Amino acid sequence: MQPNTQPQLADMSVLAGQTSLLSKLEVNDSPFLSCYLDAQSGPGSCRQFIEDKAALIRPHLAGVTRLEFENALNMVYRQLEGAWHPDVKGMAIFARGLAGGRHLTAIQLAVPMRNSLAVYRAPEVLPLIALQDSQPVFMLLLACEGSVQVLKLDLGSVVPHAWPLRVLPHPTEPTAVQPLLSGSGLQRIHRLVSANTGMPLVVAADADSLPALKDCLPLRAASSLLHSLALPAGVDQVAAVDFVRRSVASARTEMRTELAVRLVRSKRVNGPAVTGQVATLEALRAGNAESLVIADGYDTSGMPQWEAKIELPRLACAQGVDVIVADSDELRYLGGVGCLLRQHQERRAMPRPAHFGQLDLVA
User: Fold this and answer.
1) pTM score
2) C-alpha closest to that of 250 among 222, 229, 223
3) Which has more pLDDT, 149 or 351?
4) How far from 189 is each of 142, 149, 151, 345, CA to CA, in Å?
């Protein structure tokens, strides 16, 4: 029996682990290639994109650095020639040549990535972090096309947790109260949802069925409920899942924008926040950063010797600091990057007396 050598699509846990490992790699002066690809166009188009970018980069490299670049580039090409998962839509490939400490990481994804090729002394992990932030893992309780399903949405993949459960027919009398599922179906939903209480939950159904579907939830699931969404009329399951995914992503975008607004406001009133590359780097190095916020489209191309959009997210990720990519013109105006600071509170067993350190004499 031949072993299964087909590459697997990365789920969120794999992606988070790879991002953490990449952020903690030792760096040196050898060029490190970070390549993100929209794999939907096929291997030929992906290779052509890399070749076009490499042609622009080569004139700026010389000597050993040029040789190490070509070495890493050939590693990327060989990876493209390998096996692809049938459902792959995006790829991330990271390569460094032998002289700098050979490294190769290839990640196949169920979601497309924007084509880019970065050459720097360290891997560029910001697109991986942004992907994790925009594609949260959650459980979906979906009533659609006459059935109820429990699905797990994980980084572009849709994984069913059980066979579809048929819904009961609608009552003939408008005033009749009719549950959505039979008793056995309701128990099955309870077991599936209760077994995954640590995962955010989204409930989606047409407007008429949504209240009854929410009634199917066990009480303990209320704390995990992230959204309840009314589906557009007449959608099938594929369209319903796409609608839910876009709705959740839109809510995440709003949350990131609100965090950027909070950062800018805090900075303007001298609150616990800093903006700009230097101040943000100092806060991260001192361990004072709570969240790193980067403006979407942040460009530091004018600083070839120190790439802030690579160094700052890498340092934050290695420290376990949250990294958020937000669409904020105000943050771009303030330097494109900043961080909210940890609030250090003094800890004392009891407050100091008003005249601490003085001797009060009582006659």
Assistant:
1) 0.82
2) 229
3) 149
4) 11, 9, 11, 45
